[in-house]
Structure formats: structure tokens, C-alpha cells
């Protein structure tokens, strides 16, 4: 790619990208999580609704944006959805029991969620739960923040904790019931209390240091830290206030919202977004407190999240055919030039871009950035293409349909992991835009969801009670006891028959002897009694 100065026609910079580059144009969009379970994605510039994401069955309490153009949302019933914003479809469903009040991106590999009093860590590649901190707090966790390799959590009872690598470090009691929580890029924390207090802390290696404590006469339902030293609060009565927390000065009171202010997001360039229970999203001028524009979400607005995406993404080709695209900002034509690389003369396609608009700065920014394209170009595993993410300021693999992960090596279809055992056939089943699977077991001898249970062929085989049944290639076989044989152990051996005859004869003889002995005893008893009577008569005479 060659960048040119359109005023004097001089060449500014050459840049080799492998094959094809598409230059991006900014698009400011944001998402709102609503009380009816819908996520609305808005175009800030045109005041228009881009699309809805439907699937949650309860109010959405948390949203965050992930690499590869994924959006993560959690609701009050413990359901977490991963959304593919490119396709505007549900990608994965996760469960974290309780109301998912906070979701945050920790790094390119991990995100965290807080529900009830537990914290879960999840893999961004596989979306599996990698670690769970049970009973992280004694009451419901209100929010999570991440700064300088430390995770911070705060619960409704005002306990603020610091964690490092999922290990508890230290805590402080803010001595108030907490409504809201935020953190700025310098590591300063702020919490809004139900009694109207706003407390600001700085974070240190082993403690929290109270910077200031502010007070307003209404509960602080939401807050947002701005530039260093400033924050804006939203109240349960719909009021908003801009504070200088270094001087404790209430700089500005904004006009009232309709209903409780439930969410605040700072847009930069003086603009501030607020969401309320009245269902409206307002854009405020931070400095004078006037409403610039508003959006009607038609439902309780719980959470707002900016998504700094692009109308056109930068794409680096990896050998796949290039489909040309027309742009309003510039036109392109192609030449072939020889490039000497590592002393080997090779021919590469090069694109000469003639700039025809004022988007020249966007192009120069890309050309002068120190990006490592090689890792992205070489590791998309033929299931994706290398694109630039403006939010993360990096290149990553944009995966083809049904593939995900940093290298697009993972297949979203569950059958890709071969879950069916014992030669079972796996079928991918798509229900409500969520993939599941079914196993068709290869024969009647296996059952279960994964064909993991083997049929008990010995269930009705007793082996005539003269042996033990065993499974031989799905057939019931009998292992006979000593002196028995036959398929069912029904045949007695000759020795056993002789033994039985001997036992029978012996038993008969024994019975005869016993009877004779018993009869002899009776005769003797009768004889003895008769003799005794005769003797008694003789003595009387």
C-alpha cells in the first residue's frame, strides 16, 4: 500500500500487508440493556435503532463488549448470553445462578461475572467457567472493576474487596448500603450509597485510601467517573449532578430525568449518556447540562455500553479470493511490483490508494501503526480472516460461521468435540439459534445422551442359579460353578450325580437307623415300666 500527499503528490509511506487492505470508517454505536429482556443497539450519529437482540427472559443488568465483535449480557435470572454482533445472533448461553449484576472484560483471554455473592471467571475462547469464587461476599455483589492486574468487587452491604489472581488481598467497609460503583483509568474507585453519600477511594498495594466523601440528599442510584477529579451522579428522584470531588464542589445540577437514573456513561468530548426507569436514553452536554438528543427505549433502561465499532473493517487477506467493495472515502487500483525480501525476489500484489477525501488521517494512522500482522495472518487456521478491531486497537481473526477462538480453531457446533461414544452418530441441532447435539447410538446395546451406557444383557439371565452371567460381545454367557455345564449351567456332571446318589442312599440308611434306634428305646421304656410294676405288686404282698 502506498500513501500519497494529495497536495504535492509526494509519496509518504509504503506498507506491505500481504494482499488486501480495506480502510475503516468510524461508527459510534451503543447498546442498552432493558427491563423487558431486550438489548437495543443504537447508532449515535443518526439517532436510529440499528437492531434488537432478543433472547433474555428477564431484565438485563450487565453488558460488556468482547474481542472478535462479541457482546456479553447477563440478566436477573442468572442467564448470560454471548452475542455475535457480526451476525446479530446468539452465540453461546452460560449460567451464573443469581442476578448477574456485573460483567467485565479482564484481558483478551478472560472475563468475569458477578451474581448473588459469587464471582466466576470464564474463558473467552471456549466460554467455559475456569474458576469460581464462592461466597466472595456475604451479600449480593453490586459491581466488579479491573485495574492493574487486580479485581475489585463491592457488595450491597458496603464491603469493598481487592483480589489478585482470584486470591483475596484486602477489604474495607464503606459503612453504607451501596447502590452504584465505578472506577476510572487511574485506579480511583467511587461508590454511591442509598443514604446519599458518595465515597471516593484510591487503590494502593495493600489498602484503600479514602479521598473524599460527598453528600446529596437523595440515594445515589448511578454514578460515572469522568476525567481525574470529576464525577457525575444520578439519583433515585431523577436528578443528576456534576462534582469536583477534590474540592467537594457540586459544579452543576442537570435537568430532571423521568424516573430513577439507572445508568450513566461518559462519551468523551463533553457528552454524557443517561438511562432511566422512564425508558428514555438522554445525551447531555456535560458542561451546561442541556439535553442534546434522546432515544426512546420503551422500557426500563438498566445498563448502557458503548461499542466503538466500524462501518468498514480493515481486512488483511490470507490467500482467499478478495471481493471488492466501493467506498465513499477513496478509490483503489492495482499494480504489480517486485519486492526484495530477505534477499529473495518475490512478486506481490500491491495496492496504490489515491486519497480523495479528508479521511487521510485514518489511513495514515493505520500505515504508521506498529502492528504485528504475522501472528494474525498465519494463525487464522483457514477458518477466518484477519481484521482490525478499533476498540481494542489490534488485529484479530474474524472467524467464519460456526468457528470461534483467537485462531478460529474452535467449532461452535458441539459435534466437533465428538461427544458420542461407542461409535454413536452425532447430530448438530439448532434450536432458538443455539446449537445442541443428539447422539444416535450405533445399535441397541448402548443408550444415554452420549451412548455411554451399555445394555445389561444379563438382566434376565440367571444361569439356572448354578453360575454367573457375563457379557461376551453383547451376548449373555454363563460361567458355571464346579460340576455344572451347559449354556445355562443346567447339566450336572457324572461325579455330581454319583455324589447325589451316595448322599441319598446314606440319608435313607441314616433314617432307617434312627427309626430303629427310636423304636428300640420305646420297647426298652415299655419293658422297664412293666418290670417295675411287677416288683411293686410283689412288695405289697
TrEMBL record:
Nucleotide-binding listed as a keyword: no
GO biological process, one term: ribosomal large subunit assembly
Pfam families in alphabetical order: WD40
Transmembrane domains' residue ranges: 508-528
InterPro entries (alphabetical): EGF, EGF-like_Ca-bd_dom, WD40/YVTN_repeat-like_dom_sf, WD40_repeat_CS, WD40_repeat_dom_sf, WD40_rpt
Principal location class: nucleus
Cystine crosslinks: 376-386, 380-397, 399-408, 480-489
GO molecular function, one term: calcium ion binding
Subcellular location: Nucleus
GO annotations of cellular component type: nucleolus
SMART domains in UniProt: EGF, EGF_CA, WD40
Keyword Nucleus: yes
Annotated CDD domains: EGF_CA (cd00054)
Sorted UniProt keywords: Disulfide bond, EGF-like domain, Membrane, Nucleus, Repeat, Transmembrane, Transmembrane helix, WD repeat
Positions of the EGF-like domain: 372-409, 411-452, 454-490
Residue ranges of WD repeats: 53-85, 254-294
Protein name (record): EGF-like domain-containing protein
Source organism: Brachionus calyciflorus
